[in-house]
Every structure is written in C-alpha cells, then in structure tokens.
Amino acid sequence: MNNKFLTISITALILLGCASGSPKYSDVELREMQTRDFSTNNKVEVYKSVVNALQDEGFQLQLSDSAAGVLTAQSSEITPNKGKIARATVLTVLTNGLWALTLPGAEFGITNTISVSGNVTSIDKQTRVRLNFVHEQRNKENRLVKSDAIVDPKFYREVFIKIEKSLFLEQNL
What we know:
By secondary structure, the protein is of the alpha+beta class. The chain contains five helices and six strands, in the order ααβαββαβββα.
C-alpha cells in the first residue's frame, strides 16, 4: 500500500490549515477544481482508470457502481502523538513501571482518513469525472474530531494527472 500519498496529503492539509488567509472558493470554482473532462466517450474505461489510480494510492473502495458511474473510497493512517508517547515513557521510567499500568487503552494517536466520492459521466464525446476529497480525524473511540473538505487546486491537479496516467495505461496495455 502506498502511504506516501496519504502522508503528503495530510502534511499539506496541516500546513494549509496553519496558513492564514487561505483562499475561499465559490461553489462554481470548487466544482471546476474537482472536475476534469477526458477526451473519450468510453465511460467504463475512464471509470476503471479512476478506480485503478485511487487503488494505486492506497485507497480502498467502499462503494463501486460502474453502471451508475459512482464510487466512494478511503485511505487511513494512524498518526502517533509523539508528545503523549514521550510523556508516558518518561513517567513509566520514573515510576519503575507503575505508570504503565494506567496505559491500556490510552490514546496515543489520531486516525487520519481521506475519503473520496466521485462520479463518472459520459457527455457527448467526452467523459467527465468529478471527485470530492475530505480529510477526517477520529479519536480512539472512532469519534469524529475534525472534518475538512480538501480545497487545494494542486492536490486535485495531482490526482487528475494520476488518473490520466492510469487512463493511458488502460488504453495501451
């Protein structure tokens, strides 16, 4: 599984979240960012390319209906909380291991998940793909801590480049 894409995405989201004055996008701008037209009317071929590109990046399909042209997928990773781990280690050493008795079930990480929903539609001699990515953070009880739509044009450009490469492979192999 390729966790590099997920790690880079999460890092970019954290950095974007820290940046002040992040640009706001209108609904039309957001839809444009999330949509790409491919110059083929072979909807199934484009659909397979989207699925393959997502799977190449470590996403697992949750729902897939090629006839309707819809899909959902997720990719998750647990990010360790280094501060909590360090504190627990120090306290365990200082108390000759007694602190370790309080650790079962302790929360030392957050689960970061990137979810995507998409649709693939034939329009005249083209096929249109729209993907919507969301970054979620969940605690150890699987409760949602934070959820943000990914609204980074560079992120979507990179995703669509991967789909274009996958489509090339689909058409030529």
